[in-house]
Amino acid sequence: LVPNDHQGACAEMQRAVVLEVHEVANMQLWKHYTFRRQQITEALRTRRDCPWASQLLRGITEIQEELQHVVLDHRANEVLLLHGTTAEKAQQIVKQGFDERLTQRQLYGRGVYFTTDSCKAAQYVGTGSAGCIIVARVLLGHPFIAQGPMPTHDRPPIAPGYDVPHDSIVAQPGIPNRKGTGKGQDRQLHTEVVVPRAESQIYPE
In 82-119, which positions are buried (b, 16+ CB within 10 angstroms) versus exposed (e)? Predict the structure, then answer.
């Protein structure tokens, strides 16, 4: 789950060792999630201009192939994505779910950040030799495609013609992110997905 063209710290993730795997079973979170999934499925039924995950997210197929037992509803643009965090915060997420109010990042708007790249998720696992990467179901719904930083957005922009906000934001590799100073360093390297309604659009697997 590391892109072939990534070097340095990203390449080191090729040697990462999985020490433990835990499955999450939280019925309350699951009920919230499945209700929202049905709502999004109905909303997307007539949206011919909705970008689909398979066309947007580099690496999404590889994650799904590794976890074929997880059945996804592609009508809701449901995908499996990665979220890096500390072991302590992972325990809170398992019990309470994700909470966008606690996020520290806002480069592409307010929300919980996910990626298809394990090397990107690993940047947020804390210090030390061990960390935690959560594999989560995520409802992309009708995503907004970012063209650059959106730090002032508290929610995704309105979807043209539908008078409601997009359900998520996708930042693809190559777009300007204004973070670097050298040549080629001001471009987005990893795929990132921002989900604004964490409690109902994300379920930790």
Answer: bbbbbeebbeebbeebbebeebeebbbbbbbbbbbbbb
What's the CA gap between 149 and 108, in Å, rounded? 5
Instruction: Give the pairing of strands 143-145 and 168-171.
Output: parallel
Q: Three-class SS of residue 118?
A: helix
* pLDDT averaged over every residue in the chain: 87
How many angstroms separate the CA atoms of 69 and 71, rounded? Answer: 6
C-beta separation of 113 from 81 below 8 A: no
Q: Cα-flanking dihedrals φ and ψ of residue 171, to 5°?
A: -110, 115
pLDDT, tens digit, for every residue of 143-182? Answer: 999 999 999 999 999 999 999 999 999 999 889 987 655 4
Q: How many CB atoms lie within 10 A of CB 75?
A: 14
Question: What one-character DSSP code corresponds to residue 6?
Answer: -
Return the structure tokens found at 37: 């999934």
Of 169, 192, 28, 166, residue with least CA distance to 97: 28
Single-letter amino acid code for the residue at 177: N
CA-based nearest residue to 179, from 194, 190, 169, 193: 190
Cα 47 to Cα 34, 40, 141, 160, 161: the distances in Å are: 20, 11, 10, 11, 10
